[in-house]
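Dear colleagues,

As part of the handover before I leave the project, I'm documenting each prediction I ran so the next person doesn't have to rerun anything. This entry is a single chain, and its sequence is reproduced below.
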Amino acid sequence: MKAAEAGTNKPKPTKKTGTAKKPAARRKKNRHGGLLGRLVRACLIVGALGVFAAGYLFWQITHYSPPNPVPQREAGIVLGAALWNDAPSPGLKERLDQALKLYQAGRVQKLIVSGGLDRNGSKLTEAQGMRVYLVSRGMPKDAVILENRATSTYENLVFSRKAGEAAGIKSYLIITHEYHASRALDMARFLGFPDPVVSSVKSKVLNAAANETRETLAYGKWQLDKLLMLVGLKSV
């Protein structure tokens, strides 16, 4: 009897505390929550860096200081802009008037006008329309060199230097608006222009806020393009 009772009085299992595993559903939820948190933090960091970079580029655009006095160069490169009915738009006229002043003051001997055909029904390239305008204001036709292919600031500089080299020109003054000057100068330095200088004009006809905002985006894109060129993922 005692033996039977002894067989039935087995010690009860004790509960283990602190070692029970979490249910699988809860572990999965925590894992997903942690991943989501990391993604949110990464997005916030990237966003903050983007805002900082945009602010820095905007500061560069709005704080460009043109050289005073403007140094002498063999040729001025006038960066193109839109034609209206085959005539320079008001903004482009400002660049051309600045270029004409520099020529008349003896700061440059020739002008290279750069810009291809607009997609707005123009029959003339930007460069052709620019030369017509300059000649109508007393600029000798043989002092104006045409560059008729460019469709961007980068191409303006690449093709204009080729046109200048074909004419034996070795030094350049880049002519554009103030909001455009910082990016144009950075591109010229990247392309290896010898001691590049930008003579800029402050616009009286263009919307400053709109152009500075758009230029900030364009400057950011240029920085990315430049990086891709430096690592060989995009052709120069």
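The radius of gyration is 32 Å. Residues 1-6 have pLDDT under 50 and may be disordered.

All the best with the project,
I.
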